[in-house]
Amino acid sequence: MLKLAAAAAMTAALMGQALAHVSIEPAEAPAESTYKGVLKVGHGCEGAATTSIRVQIPEGVIAVKPMPKAGWELSTKVESYSEPVRYYDQSLTEGVREIAWTGGKLPDDWYDEFVFRARLPKAEPGTVIRFPVVQDCEATTVRWIEVPAEGQDSHDLKEPAPEVTITPAAPHHH
Questions:
Q1: Which residue intervals define the domain YncI copper-binding in the entry (predicted)?
Q2: Most exposed among 27, 129, 138, 142, judged by the fewest C-beta atoms under 10 Å?
Q3: 25-46 pLDDT, tens per residue?
């Protein structure tokens, strides 16, 4: 009986670790696809309510459009791209590099999602793109920005950046 209780406690602890971060879904998407990113916030910071979520848009991810969220203020930071990129019949030289949802209040024991749309870059299948997130709470801040070292699993990190793995590009139909 004691072994069963210990196993249950260990399982609960591991599940808590696995769920104890801001994540993104879907976790895989085709290269050069239009991607609907859903940032999943499963908890606050050490019991305090979340009051802002900011996500940095990685190099190569373009044409970003965040979804407004009732009760939250939405802002974006627009910056130049390192080089012009082709997007349909346009040449883009700048775009959204950061999205911030602020001024809301997500209690620690509630769950919510923050959504944006973007075009993923042309990249080799298996390439991992990370979307660093800063979660501000009433009394503290958690920076979900850690990147694993070569050969390290991101699940081993305390505050891993949400990541999307690129899959083969879908065939283009005209």
A1: 21-166
A2: 27
A3: 999 999 999 999 999 999 999 8
What string of DSSP letters covers 8-74?
A: HHHHHHHHHHHHSS-EEE-SEEETT-EEEEEEEE---BTTBPEEEEEEEPPTT-EEEEEPP-TTSEE
Whether residue 119 contacts residue 65, with contact meaning beta carbons closer than 8 Å, is answered with: no
- Number of Cβ within 10 Å of residue 52's Cβ equals 18
Is 2-166 assigned to CATH 2.60.40.2230? Answer: yes
Q: Which two tokens stand for residue 87?
A: 């997007």
Burial class (CB in 10 A: 0-12, 13-18, 19+), 44: buried
Strand partners, 118: 35
On the CB side of 62, CA atoms within 13 Å amount to 20
Can you name the residues that pair with 120 across neighbouring β-strands? none
Report domain extents, the chain: 2-166
